[in-house]
Every structure is written in C-alpha cells, then in structure tokens.
Write a structure and sequence with these properties.
By secondary structure, the protein is mainly α. It has 2 domains: 39 residues; 151 residues, Arp2/3 complex 21 kDa subunit ARPC3 (Orthogonal Bundle), CATH 1.10.1760.20. Helices cover 66% and strands 3% of the residues. It has a two-stranded antiparallel ribbon. A hairpin with a 5-residue loop joins strand 1 and strand 2. Helix 6 packs antiparallel against helix 7.
Length: 214
C-alpha cells in the first residue's frame, strides 16, 4: 500500500508539475504576444536626417557649399587688382592684370557659373573705373573672353596648382583669340605674351594662398 501511495503521489505530482509548466509556457507566450502587439520588439532603424545647407548658401557643381559673398570677393579682387595695376605708374604694364587667373580659380573651385560670372563682369566694370580706358565694343569682347576662360575652368577634375596653371594658360589663349579676332588676329606681339606670362605668375601667387596641396 505504501508503495502504491508513493507511486500515485509521484504520478499526481508529475502531472501537476507538467500542468504548471505548460501553463507557465502558455502564459509566457501570451505575455510575449501582447508585448509584440504593442510593437516593442520591432527594431526601429534610425532615420537619416537630411542635412540642409545653411541659409544663404548653395551647393555648387563641385559639391562645395558657396555663398554669393565668396564669389563677390573674388570678383572684387579681380576688379580692384586690375584697376590698381593700371593706375599705378610704375607697374602700368599693358595686358598685365589678374582677372583671368581669378576667374579660372573661381571656375575650378565653385563651378562654371561663378567662373563665367567673374570673367564676364570684371573687365567691363574695371574699364569704367580706369580713366584712360574707354568703355566701348572692346569691353564686350574682353567680357566674352573672360567668361570663356572662367567657364571652361568649371570642367576641371581636380583643384591643384598644375591644373590652375594649365587652365590659366588655355584661358588666356582663348581670351586673346576673342579680343583679337575682330582685327583678324590671334596673338599680338608683345602684348599677348605679356598677358600669358603675367597670368601664369598671378596663378602661382593665387594658388600658393588658396590651394592646399595634399
């Protein structure tokens, strides 16, 4: 009898234990399902926030954030540099002016638009400020040549000293073609060569300050 009672007790205990375990698992699953219904187990991926350029800034073709003030500074440097060289007696050498190297740098750094703008405006505006220079059709040919020189620099693949020198050289040649074409000329000795070599010098100076070699 005692053995049978022990076996019966053990069996009933095992059945109750199994029932408790099953009930515990069911209740655990219900809690888990309820937890899922509230959306807690889902992993929320962090949303990527779009970074907007600060107010007043635009992103140029080179992927660089630019402001109108930066382009205006380059334009003013080009205008003032040419005016100072023309009105200073000791340095008033024909065709020596920093406009094209600055327009080329603007095109390389910020894109064809800013480069074209600097080259297009610097010549006619500076002509109005130089007493001995007349504002006539010559100014429009100069503006066209400067715009071409600054615009093509927007196609530069990289910004370094060699690229600045190369595009300054090409831009100056194209400028000379634009201003001399009405007279059925391409280069005029010695003024065209003054212009080419002085522009390369200005490009070296600009690049040494504005371009950081890696």
């Amino acid at each position: 009898m005692s053995g049978h009672g022990e076996e019966h007790g053990n069996e009933s205990h095992g059945e109750n234990g199994g029932h408790d375990e099953a009930g515990h698992e069911e209740s655990h699953e219900e809690v888990h399902e309820g937890h899922e219904e509230h959306g807690h187990p889902e992993k929320h991926e962090p949303k990527e926030e779009k970074k907007e350029a600060p107010a007043g800034k635009k992103t140029g073709p080179k992927g660089k954030s630019i402001t109108e003030s930066e382009v205006l500074i380059i334009l003013l440097l080009a205008i003032c540099g040419r005016v100072l060289l023309k009105v200073t007696p000791l340095v008033n050498i024909p065709s020596v002016e920093p406009i094209i190297p600055l327009a080329v740098f603007a095109g390389m750094a910020y894109g064809a638009g800013p480069g074209t703008l600097v080259g297009l405006l610097a010549y006619p505006i500076s002509n109005m400020l130089i007493p001995e220079v007349q504002f006539d059709m010559w100014s429009f040919w100069q503006a066209a040549g400067g715009a071409v020189a600054g615009g093509i620099a927007g196609f530069a693949k990289k910004i370094d000293m060699n690229t600045l020198l190369w595009y300054t050289f090409i831009g100056t040649l194209l400028f000379e073609v634009c201003v001399n074409f009405p007279d059925q000329l391409i280069l005029v000795w010695p003024f065209s060569f003054y212009h080419i070599f002085s522009n390369l010098f200005f490009a070296l100076v600009i690049g040494s300050f504005a371009i950081k070699e890696k």
